[in-house]
Amino acid sequence: MDPKHRKFILLGLIVALIAGWGTGWVRGARMHAGIEAKAAFVKASAEHREASYAVADTAAELDRLLASLQEAEERGESLESVIARGSRLNAAKEKHAALLAKVAALEKIEAAAEADLSANSLWYTLHRLIRFIGKLFLNLLNLLVIPLVVSSLIAGIVSLGDIRHVGRTGLRTLAYYFITTSIAVIIGIILVQIVEPGVGMETGTEVASKVHGKEDAGIVDTILKVFIDEGAPERGAVPKNIFSAMASMNVLGVIVFTLFFGAALTVVGEKGRPVIAFFDGANETILRMIHWVMYLLPFGVYGLIVDRLAVTGGGSAVWGELTRLGYYAATVIGGLAIHSIIVIPLILLLFTQKRPVRYLSGMAQALFTAFSTASSSATLPTTMECVEENNKISSRSASFVLPIGATINMDGTALYEAVAVI
User: What's the predicted TM-score (pTM) here?
Assistant: First the structure.
C-alpha cells in the first residue's frame, strides 16, 4: 500500500475513534432506547398475533360445540348428555371471553410499544445503519481470516525450507508465547494481591449459563477437549472435518491441519511445486484483498464502537459499569499497561534492537482495529499488513508466527482471567 494511503487511513482511524466514542457516549442512550423500543414492539406484536390466533381457534370451537348441542337437542338425547355438552360450551365461552380480554389488553400494549418505537424510530434507524457499516467491515475481515491463515502459513512453512528448521522455529515461537503469557499471568496475580479489587464486593450464588454442567469437568478432560471436542466434532485442535472447522471459524484446527499439510509439502519434492506456487499466488491475492478492505477501516471502526456503546446504553451506562467495577477495571487495565508498555517493548528492544516507539507507531492500525473488534482473528489481516508493510518484517516470519499467535498467544486474556478468578 502506498505510504500516503497508509497515513490517510491512520488519520481517518484516529478521527473514527474520537467520533465513535463521542457519538456513542452522547447519543448511545437514545439509540439504546430505540433498540429496546423495537424489541418491545416485536414482542408485543408476536404476543398479540398469538392471542388473536387463539381467539379464532376458540371461536371455531364455540361454533362446533353450539352445533353439537343443537344436534343433541334435536335428536332428543338424554338430559345428562345435553347438560354435559352445555357445560363444555359454557367453558369454551369463558375461555373465549378471557382471550378477547387478553387481546384487548395486548392491543393497548402493542399500541404503546408502537408509539414508543415511533418516538425513537430515527435513532433506531440510525443505529441500524451504523451497525451495518461496522458489521460489514468485520465480516469482510472474518471472510479473509481462514484463507489468509491457510495461504500465509503454507507459504511461510515452505519458505523456511527444511522441515527440521520449521520445527526449531515453531519451538521458539511456542516458547516465546508461553513465556509472555506466563509473565502476563504473574503480573495479574501480583496486582490483584496488592489492589484486592474483590474486597467488599457483593457475591452472588447464580452460576453463569456458560459454565452450567461443567462444574464436574476435571483437568484431564479439559486438556483433552482442547484437542478433540466430542460434543462438537468441528471444534478442537484436531477436528473431524477440516471444512466444518473452516465453516465454524475454528482457527486452531485450521492451523494444525495447515502445519501438517505444509510440512508434507516440504518433503513431496517436484510434484508439490505446483501446489506451492498456487498457495504463493493465493497468499499474494489475499494480501491485495486486505489492502482494499483497509480503506474501509475508519468507517468500520466507527460503526463498531458506536454499536458497542449503543447496545451497552450510552455513556452513562458505561460510566456506571466502570464505577461499579472500578477497582477491578483499574487492576486489569493497569496490568495490561505494564505488560504492553514495559514488558513487550523491553523484549523487543533486547532481542531485536528495534525502537519500541517506532515499532508501535507502525502497528497503530492493528491496535486500533483490535480495540474496536475485540477479536484477534478478525485483526489478523490488519496485523500482517502492519508487520510486513510498516515494520518491514519478512513475510516468511510473519506468515508463520502471526496466524499461530492470533490463536494461542492471548496475554491480555490470560491476565484478566487471572485477576477475575482471584
Answer: 0.73
